[in-house]
């Protein structure tokens, strides 16, 4: 992966912070909005610098959270009114559209 700049980190952080309760976004959505070359950059930022962000609102394009996060992530989303079906968040219903 190419070196991630401070500006890219801040762009990802701002976009994640802008996802409202009851909505989700994918790593790819955020990467596209931030002008990044890969959703993996968003994943890296989320792993290294997201403890103060609504990290649970960022999911893979499949709608299915990573297995090691699934229970906690789906519980937090459910508390915001996002209901998963068979462990997947229906993106058509809950996907956030950035302005």
* Name of the CATH superfamily: Winged helix-like DNA-binding domain superfamily/Winged helix DNA-binding domain
Spatial order of the strands forming the largest sheet: 1-2
Total of DSSP H or I helical runs spanning 4+ residues: 5
Number of strands: 2
CATH topology: Arc Repressor Mutant, subunit A
GO molecular function: methylated-DNA-[protein]-cysteine S-methyltransferase activity
Protein name: Methylated-DNA-[protein]-cysteine S-methyltransferase
Organism: Mycolicibacterium fluoranthenivorans
InterPro entries: ATL_DNA_repair, MethylDNA_cys_MeTrfase_DNA-bd, MethylDNA_cys_MeTrfase_DNAb, WH-like_DNA-bd_sf
Brief account:
It is built from five helices and two strands; from the N terminus they run H-E-H-H-E-H-H.
Structural write-up:
- This is Methylated-DNA-[protein]-cysteine S-methyltransferase.
- Residues 10-82 form the Methylated-DNA-[protein]-cysteine S-methyltransferase DNA binding domain.
- Its EC number is 2.1.1.63.
- Keywords: DNA damage, Methyltransferase, Transferase.
- With 99 residues, the protein is mainly alpha-helical.
- It has one domain: Arc Repressor Mutant, subunit A (Orthogonal Bundle).
- The protein has five helices and two strands, in the order H-E-H-H-E-H-H.
- Helix 1 packs across helix 2 and helix 2 packs across helix 3.
- The radius of gyration is 13 Å and the shape is globular.
- The mean pLDDT is 95.
């Amino acid at each position: 992966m190419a070196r991630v700049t401070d500006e890219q980190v801040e762009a990802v952080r701002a976009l994640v912070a802008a996802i409202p309760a009851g909505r989700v976004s994918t790593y790819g959505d955020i990467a596209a909005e931030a002008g990044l070359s890969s959703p993996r950059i968003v994943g890296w930022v989320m792993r290294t610098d997201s403890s103060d962000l609504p990290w649970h609102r960022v999911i893979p394009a499949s709608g299915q959270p990573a297995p090691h996060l699934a229970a906690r992530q789906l519980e937090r989303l459910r508390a915001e009114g996002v209901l998963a079906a068979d462990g997947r968040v229906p993106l058509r219903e809950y996907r956030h559209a950035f302005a």
